[in-house]
Structures are given as structure tokens and as C-alpha cells.
Design the sequence.
């Protein structure tokens, strides 16, 4: 089995000219939605598994148990099947049904954790992982929330690819946050190479990251109910907190103006960029990650009935951008 078969491939970074009416600012998108499992988590999964194999904690034929809201689960399921490793995905009741079907298609076992009385789904998932590890002494977890192999993936591949594609000229990078592994890897690369690029963390309203207040969230993949270990080292220059209806509007804007079908976290980035644009100097070059494909969100984000039933009464913003004062910390 060749290394190339297992590794994520280099995804294109393309310039977008129709997303915003901002002719004095160049906007670029890194299309990691084109990874084989449909998201940038393909890089994370490969790095996490490589770290376990290299350390001897995991052998071919072994078992991985991991908490996931969807994207990492799909990536781990794909990576595990080509490596001959069993995989158990611990998910909550918010998990995207399409993502679960994709995991099952790759042969993963799905363990659904009920929502606890306090509503903290992430904490409940992590507790269930510990229970399963105790029941299966030979199993290991990739620990996406604390393993340094998570940011290492983006230090070694994601950020270098962006910088190379843009000839080293990048003023601002927008990254969606959950475990903060992608953000931290990009941050470490910027600091290591002494670049002037500012990092903008895009978080969900209701997430506790970066001092946020806990709240109910309906869309998976963005934000966190507890502060992951990796987040303690993450120091973005700017933080935006985005409401879920704005994420939907961002997804639809990206699809209908640029023909890119992306997931909720990328829609949040589009909303954050829209808020940030008035303060970005003319001549700037900004980039963002298209973290995942919108295909698993066709029955939620892109379904007007679902949005009306699940989000319409839970937001203080209109179905557009720039209508709320929440923003930069």
C-alpha cells in the first residue's frame, strides 16, 4: 500500500471575484472540500493515525475510537479502511445524518450518545469515548482535541500550500474553529516563518471557545461546548462569532455567486469576511478555507423548510450580513 494512497492531496487555492463587491481586495479560497473524504479533516485524520502508528500505540488491524461531529469521522473512516484498522465513531444527536451514512459506507461503527441534561454534547461524547476505551483495552483514541499531530497536519501541508499558491503574499487568513487544530497549525507556521499574516478565528455563537458563552447550537462542525486542550495555545488576531442563520446565508451566497457548495463552517467564514470587509485596507489579499463539502448539508443548511423550522426563531439577525453588533473581540 503506497503512501500516496493514504495521504491527502494538494487542494487548489483559487481567486474568487464574484463573492463580494470589493474590487480593491483580493479574495482566495482553499478548496479542501475536494479532499477524498470531503473535508480538510482528511489531513487531520492522516496525521493523527500516522502519529499513533509511528509511536507503536496502534498497529494494523487495531481499533480507533474517536468523538466526532461528522467531518473527522468521515475522514477517519476512510483512512482506517485503507489501512486495515477498525473505527468506532462516537457522535451525538446533532450529527449530520448524511455524514453518518458516509461513515457506515466506509465500514465504521456508529455509537450515538444521547444529549445530557446539561446539553453539553461534546463532553458527553468524550466521556463515552473513555468508556469504550475501558471496554476495549487494545483500542486507542486519536484525541483530536489534544494531540499535537492535529495542528502538525496543517503546519506541514495546509498553510505551506496556501502561502505557495499566493506567492507568499497573504494579509489575512480566515479559519473556522472547533478543536482549533487547523487554526493552531496555521498560526504556528505563520510565527515560525515570521509572516505578517493575521489569523481570523470564526466561531459559532453558543461556543465556549475564546471566552464565549455556552448556548444551544443546531449545526455541527463549528464551535465547542468545552475548551479543547489545543485551544489553550491558539491565539488568533481576531475572533468572529457567527449565528447559524448567517452561516446558512453565507453558504447560499458562496454557492450562488461562486458555484462552491460548502458546509456550515465555511458559510460562517463567508459571514465573518462580510463583517470584516469594511475594515480591511484596499489592496489586501485575504484567504479562507473551504473546510468541507455542502453535500452532507443538503437536507439542513440548503433546505429552506429545515432552516425555517430549526433556525428562524433562534436568531437576532436577518438572512443577510452586517445586521448584528457581535463581532471582533
Sequence:
Amino acid at each position: 500500500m503506497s503512501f500516496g494512497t493514504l495521504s491527502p492531496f494538494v487542494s487548489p487555492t483559487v481567486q474568487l471575484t464574484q463573492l463580494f463587491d470589493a474590487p480593491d481586495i483580493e479574495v482566495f479560497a482553499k478548496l479542501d472540500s475536494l479532499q477524498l473524504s470531503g473535508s480538510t479533516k482528511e489531513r487531520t485524520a492522516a496525521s493523527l493515525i500516522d502519529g499513533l502508528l509511528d509511536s507503536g500505540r496502534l498497529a494494523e488491524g487495531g481499533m480507533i475510537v474517536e468523538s466526532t461531529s461528522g467531518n473527522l469521522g468521515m475522514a477517519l473512516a476512510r483512512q482506517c479502511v485503507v489501512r486495515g484498522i477498525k473505527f468506532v465513531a462516537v457522535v451525538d444527536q446533532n450529527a449530520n445524518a448524511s455524514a453518518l451514512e458516509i461513515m457506515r459506507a466506509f465500514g465504521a461503527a456508529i455509537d450515538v450518545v444521547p444529549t445530557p441534561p446539561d446539553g453539553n454534547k461534546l463532553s458527553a461524547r468524550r466521556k463515552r469515548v473513555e468508556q469504550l476505551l475501558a471496554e476495549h483495552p487494545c483500542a486507542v483514541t486519536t484525541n483530536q482535541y489534544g494531540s499535537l499531530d492535529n495542528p502538525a497536519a496543517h503546519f506541514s501541508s495546509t498553510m505551506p500550500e496556501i502561502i505557495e499558491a499566493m506567492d507568499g503574499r497573504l494579509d489575512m487568513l480566515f479559519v473556522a474553529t472547533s478543536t482549533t487544530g487547523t487554526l493552531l497549525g496555521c498560526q504556528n507556521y505563520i510565527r515560525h516563518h515570521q509572516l505578517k499574516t493575521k489569523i481570523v478565528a470564526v466561531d459559532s455563537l453558543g461556543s465556549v471557545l475564546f471566552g464565549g458563552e455556552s448556548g444551544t447550537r443546531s449545526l455541527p462542525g463549528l464551535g465547542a461546548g468545552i475548551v479543547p486542550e489545543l485551544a489553550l495555545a491558539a491565539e488568533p488576531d481576531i475572533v468572529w462569532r457567527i449565528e447559524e442563520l448567517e452561516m446558512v446565508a453565507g453558504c447560499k451566497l458562496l454557492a450562488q455567486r461562486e458555484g462552491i457548495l460548502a458546509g456550515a463552517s465555511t458559510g460562517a467564514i463567508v459571514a465573518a469576511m462580510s463583517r470584516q470587509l469594511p475594515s480591511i485596507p484596499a489592496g489586501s489579499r485575504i484567504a479562507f478555507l473551504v473546510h468541507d463539502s455542502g453535500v452532507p448539508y443538503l437536507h439542513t443548511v440548503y433546505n429552506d423548510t429545515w432552516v425555517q423550522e430549526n433556525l428562524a426563531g433562534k436568531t437576532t439577525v436577518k438572512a443577510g450580513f452586517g445586521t448584528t453588533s457581535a463581532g471582533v473581540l
Notes: The CA atoms of residues 80 and 86 lie 6 Å apart. The longest helix spans residues 149-165. The beta strands are 13-16, 26-30, 63-67, 86-92, 109-113, 172-176, 198-204, 238-242, 285-289. Confidence is low (pLDDT under 50) at residues 1-5, 316-329.
